[in-house]
Amino acid sequence: MNLKDKNILVLGLAVSGVSTSKALSKLGANVIVTDMKKEEELKEYIEELKDIHITYVLGSNDVDLEKIDLIIKSPGIPLDIPIIKNAESKGIEVITDIELSYRISKNRFIAITGTNGKTTTTSLTGEIFKKAGFGTHVTGNIGVGILWEVVNSHDDDVFIIEASSFQLDSTKKFKPKVSLITNITPDHLNWHKTIENYIKAKQKVFRNQDKDDFTILNYDDHILRSMEKYTSGNLIFFSSSNVLSKGVYVKDNYIVVNDGKNIKNVISLDHIKIPGKHNLENALSAVAIAWVMGVSIDVISDVLMNFEGVEHRLEFVDEIKKVRYFNDSKGTNPDASIKAIEAINSPIILIAGGMDKGGSFDDFVDSFDNKVKALILIGETAEKIKNTAINKKFSNIYIVETIQEAVQKSFEISNEGDNVLLSPACASWDMFESYEERGRVFKKEVKLLREA
User: Fold this and answer.
1) Closest among 32, 26, 19 to 4, alpha carbons compared
2) What percent of the chain has pLDDT above 70?
3) Cα separation of 425 and 355, whole Å?
4) How many structural domains does the chain have?
5) Mur ligase C-terminal domain spans which residues (predicted)?
6) In whole angstroms, how far apart are CA 84 and each of 164, 414, 440?
7) Which residues contact 2 (CB under 8 A, 6 or more apart)?
8) Cα gap 376→408, rounded to integer Å
9) How far apart are CA 147 and CA 311, in angstroms?
10) Predicted confidence (pLDDT) per residue in 25-37, tens digit
11) Is 116 annotated as a binding residue?
12) Do the beta carbons of residue 306 and residue 124 sit within 8 Å?
C-alpha cells in the first residue's frame, strides 16, 4: 500500500495520533491532524511532532474532505460523529492504526483481545517471544502506537498486539497469524450501545483468518465456546477448569499442552508467581500462543516462573503497619474487579468508582461475599455503586472526592491484617487521563503514608 503524497487525515491527537502522524510522515504522506480540543490542550503532543510538517485543524473538525484520501481515527472516537458520517458518504475510508499497520506490513501479527486479561497476557506473551529470540514488538493498546513500531521494524519481527474493541471495530482486512480472545463480559456499552455490537467487534479479530492461521478461545467462556462456527482458522481452546481432548489446560496441578496425540507438562501451578484464577487463565493464554508458534516448552516454562505481572494489575505496593496495599487500577470494569477481589485474601478495604460505562454493579457487589469489610467510593459512579450496595445490605460505605482522601480514609479505618485494594470497576476518565495515572496517584499516596 503506497501512501506517498496521499492526503491522510489523522482524527484525534493523543498517543496513537502522535505515533500515526510520525509514521505517515515517514511513509511520505501529507498529514492533516484534526482534534476537537484546542491547541493549548494538546501542547505536549504538538511538541512531539514539531519536526514534522503537519497541517492542524484544532478546536473543530472543519476539514475539507474533498482533498482527503484516507482517515485514520483514534480508536476511542465513535463512528457516528458527523465528520465520519460525512466522509463515508463521500466514499472516504475510515480505519484505525491497527488496520493500516496490517496493510503496510509483512510482519507476523499476534492479536490478543477480550474484556479482561489483555494487558497481562500481551505482556507475558511478549516476554516469552523475546526469550525465544524473536524480534518482538509489544504494542497496540499498550506502549507506543503500533504504526510507528511497524514502520521501524524488520519484516521477520513478530508483533504482539493488545487489541481493544475500539480498534477492532474499524478493521476490514486485518488478519493476524494468531488471534486470541481471553473472555467476554459486558463492557464499553456506552460506546458500543449493545452487548451484541461489543461481541461483533471482538469477533473481528479472527473473521479474516484462514487455515494457515490460529484462533485461540477460552473454553470456559460460554460466549467464546459458541464462536467455533465463525472462524476458519485452526481452533485451539484453553481451559482452567476442564480437561480438553486437544488444547491447553490444567491436569494434575500442571499446565499441559495436548496436540491430540501427546500431552506435555509445561509448568507446575506452584511455580507461577502471578496470583489468582484470572492470572492462571492469562498464563494459559500465553502458553497457547507460544505453543502454536513453535516456542519450546523450556522457554515458556522459564518465563512463566519469573514473570511477576504488570503495573496496575493486582500490583503489590507496600505493607504499612501490617496493612497491605494493592494497586489494581487496571480494573476498569466490574468483572475485572471481581477477579481482583477473588485473588486477594480477606478482609479487604475496597476503593472503587470512576466513570460510568453503562453497566450494572450487581455482580460486583455480590462478589464482596464477606471478604470486603469497607467500601470507599470516588468518581461519578459513587452514588450508583452505593445504592447498589445498600440494596444488597452492604452499608459500611464512605464517599470521598479524591484518591488522596480514599487512601487516607483506608488508613484510618484499617486494622492489622487488612488489605487495601484499589480496583475501581470503572474507567478513569472522569478524574484522570488514564488508568495508569490513577494507579500512579494511588501509589504516590501510599508512599506518602509510609513517609508520614
Assistant:
1) 26
2) 98
3) 9
4) 3
5) 312-426
6) 20, 51, 35
7) none
8) 11
9) 24
10) 999 999 999 999 9
11) yes
12) no
Helices (DSSP H) in 193-296: which residue ranges? 195-203, 222-225, 277-292
Does the N-terminal peptide bond of residue 347 adopt cis geometry, omega within 30 degrees of 0?
Answer: yes
Residues of the chain with pLDDT under 70: 189, 191
- 197 annotated to bind ligand: no
**CATH of residue 49:** 3.40.50.720
Cα distances from 3 to residues 28, 50, 68, 153, in angstroms, run: 6, 21, 12, 17
CA angle 163, 244, 308 (to 5 degrees): 50
117 is in an annotated binding site: yes
The answer to the question of whether 120 is labelled as a binding residue is yes
**In the chain, what's the furthest Cα-to-Cα distance?**
66
Residues 243, 211 within the same domain: yes
| Structural domain includes residue 2 | no
**Is 231 annotated among the ligand-binding residues?**
no
Domain limits for position 321: 315-451
Q: Does residue 78 sit in the same domain as residue 145?
A: no
Please name the amino acid found at residue 299: V
CB atoms within 10 A of CB 135: 14
* Residue of 226, 265, 273, 235 lying closest to 249 (CA atoms): 265
What pLDDT is attached to residue 1?
82
Q: What is the pLDDT of residue 191?
A: 67
Select from 71, 95, 119 the last residue of a domain.
95
Q: 98-127: b or e for each residue (b if 16 or more CB lie within 10 Å)? A: bbbbbeebebbbbbbbbbbbbbbbbbbbbb
Beta bridge partners of 247: 258
CATH of the domain at 436: 3.90.190.20
115 is in an annotated binding site: yes
Burial of 42 (C-beta count, 10 Å sphere; 0-12/13-18/19+):
buried
Rg (C-alpha) for the chain, rounded Å, is 23
Q: How many degrees, rounded to 5, is the angle at CA 388 between CA 117 and CA 417?
A: 65
Angle between the 435-451 and 403-413 helix axes, to the nearest 10 degrees?
Answer: 50
User: Does some domain include residue 335?
Assistant: yes
Instruction: Please name the residue that has the C-alpha cell 508458534.
Output: 293
Residue type, 257: V
